[in-house]
């Protein structure tokens, strides 16, 4: 069974195209991606001359039309966004390091400073990632997340001596708290669902789904 996640919010915006990847889609080279390094670094591309290979970073924002940007994931959280006036689109790779280092806030900062777009005009969509059923982490990592994000409780699950994180939900809550209203979120897990590549399931790197978005 093939499952493709359709975002309630992104689907409402005319003038953009997007797709959350599965094993079966977007395995071609027509999508521009960054050299992802599990950072909170945001790259802005405002014209064609800035398009180069091998740019390090984990979030990409562009206002260049017909420039298809994307994010590679295999358990980490892919987040796509666009504003309802079709000025910009963006793609974020939020793994546990990027989430811990608040990559979504770095993105909001750039949206405000570089593009002066109000957050209530931005639609965010959180795509397929390894969910709380499967994302077990060590006690130390779990504790440092819970300490840093003590205002939230739902992303942190403890079952006896096992510790789980819900990174998609945590990014959702951070966005909400910082003024983003329109966010939707997938509920399928990359590890449970064989239609997705999962780093934890395959136990090897290099197999990714690519989620992409562009201004038409
Ligand atoms: Zn799962």
Walk me through what this model shows.
The chain is of the alpha+beta class and 216 residues long. The chain has a single domain, classed as CNF1/YfiH-like putative cysteine hydrolases. The protein is 20% helix and 26% strand. The protein is built from 5 helices and 12 strands. The strands form 3 sheets. The protein has a 6-stranded mixed beta sheet with strand order 2-3-6-5-7-11. A 3-stranded antiparallel beta sheet has the order 1-12-4, with no helix packed on it. The chain is globular and about 50 Å long. It starts with 15 loop residues before the first strand and ends with a strand. It binds zinc ion. The site of zinc ion has 6 residues, from loops.
Quick one: overall form? Answer: globular
Average the pLDDT over all residues and give the rounded result: 94
**CATH architect. name:** 4-Layer Sandwich
Q: In what range is the share of β-strand residues?
A: 25-35%
Instruction: Give, in order, the helices and strands.
Output: EEEEEEHHEEHEEHEHE
Report a brief summary of the structure:
By secondary structure, the chain is of the alpha+beta class. The protein has helices spanning 96-100, 103-115, 139-148, 167-177, 199-202, and strands at 16-19, 42-45, 59-62, 69-73, 77-83, 89-94, 122-126, 136-137, 156-159, 162-165, 182-185, 209-215.
Name its key features:
216 residues; alpha+beta; six-stranded mixed β-sheet; three-stranded antiparallel β-sheet; 20% helix; binds zinc ion
Secondary-structure map with pairings?
Elements: E1 16-19, E2 42-45, E3 59-62, E4 69-73, E5 77-83, E6 89-94, H1 96-100, H2 103-115, E7 122-126, E8 136-137, H3 139-148, E9 156-159, E10 162-165, H4 167-177, E11 182-185, H5 199-202, E12 209-215
Parallel strand pairs: 2-3, 7-11
Antiparallel strand pairs: 1-12, 3-6, 4-12, 5-6, 5-7, 8-10, 9-10
Bound molecules: zinc ion.
Zinc ion binds next to loops.
């Amino acid at each position: 069974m093939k499952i493709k996640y359709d975002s309630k919010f992104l689907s409402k915006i005319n003038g953009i195209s997007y797709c959350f990847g599965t094993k079966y889609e977007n395995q071609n080279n027509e999508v521009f991606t960054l050299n992802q390094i599990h950072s909170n670094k945001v790259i802005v591309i405002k014209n064609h001359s800035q398009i180069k290979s091998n740019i390090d970073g984990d979030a990409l924002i562009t206002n260049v039309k017909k420039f298809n940007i994307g994010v590679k994931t295999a358990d980490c959280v892919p987040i796509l966004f666009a504003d309802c006036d079709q000025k910009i689109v963006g793609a974020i790779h939020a793994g546990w390091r990027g989430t811990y280092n608040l990559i979504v806030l770095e993105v909001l900062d750039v949206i405000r400073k570089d593009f002066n777009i109000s957050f209530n005009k931005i639609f965010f969509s959180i795509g397929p990632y390894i969910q709380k059923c499967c994302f077990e982490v060590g006690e130390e990592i779990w504790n440092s997340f819970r300490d840093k994000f003590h205002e939230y409780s739902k992303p942190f699950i403890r079952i006896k001596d096992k510790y789980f994180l819900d990174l998609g939900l945590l990014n959702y809550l951070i966005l909400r708290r910082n003024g983003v209203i329109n966010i939707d979120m997938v509920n399928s897990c990359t590890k449970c669902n064989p239609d997705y590549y999962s780093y934890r399931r395959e136990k090897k790197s290099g197999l990714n789904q690519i989620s992409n978005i562009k201004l038409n």
